[in-house]
Write a structure and sequence with these properties.
- The protein is mostly helical and 159 residues long.
- The protein folds into two domains: 2-77, Multidrug-efflux Transporter Regulator, Chain: A, Domain 2, CATH 1.10.1660.10; 97-159, no CATH class.
- Helices cover 53% and strands 4% of the residues.
- It contains six helices and three strands; from the N terminus they run E-H-H-E-E-H-H-H-H.
- Strands 1-3-2 form a three-stranded antiparallel β-sheet.
- The longest helix is centred in the middle third of the chain and has 35 residues, at 79-113.
- The protein is elongated.
- 14% of the residues are buried.
């Protein structure tokens, strides 16, 4: 049997994490000592390992709860139910990756359009782009010598 601090130390988590998992119904201690300490079995430790592995690959606590419920009754549950949880997460991640790539591309365009020089920010192309209603980034700084639709990292020379 492990006391809460022992189990937390063994898996390098905080005791508050184990208390939280208990409140969420993910990992309840198998017993309590006479003085009220949470006591965990080896089976509980394996359940914590399952939770931590699932979290490490990006599954939410709700996903993990679903997988644990399948795990508890796996002889009456189909593998397809587990796969569905993973496949839904994959679709969510693909959408998130697309969103992050859009953010990256947008920030790169803003960065490329700005000279980053020491002159006043009154004509800063990043600020102008964020203030405008247009999706196009334009440079209105006459000190930048390039085609209106072409920007470099230094935004001060034609390429």
């Amino acid at each position: 049997m492990y006391r809460i601090g022992e189990l937390a130390k063994l898996y390098q988590v905080k005791t508050d994490t184990l208390r939280f998992y208990d409140k969420q119904g993910l990992l309840s201690p198998s017993e309590r000592s006479e003085s009220g300490y949470r006591l965990y079995t080896q089976h509980d430790a394996l359940c914590l390992q399952f939770i931590l592995r699932a979290k490490a690959i990006g599954l939410s606590l709700m996903d993990i709860a679903e997988l644990l419920s399948i795990e508890l009754d796996k002889s009456n549950r189909a593998c397809s139910e587990v796969k569905d949880v993973v496949d839904i997460k994959l679709v969510e991640l693909e959408k998130k990756i697309e969103e992050l790539n859009y953010f990256k591309d947008s920030l790169q365009r803003l960065s490329d359009a700005c000279c980053g020089g020491q002159e006043s920010a009154e004509n800063c192309s990043i600020l102008e782009a964020l203030e405008s209603n247009s999706s196009a980034i334009t440079c209105n700084n006459s000190h930048h010598h390039h085609a209106q639709d072409h920007y470099t990292k230094t935004c001060n020379s034609k390429e």
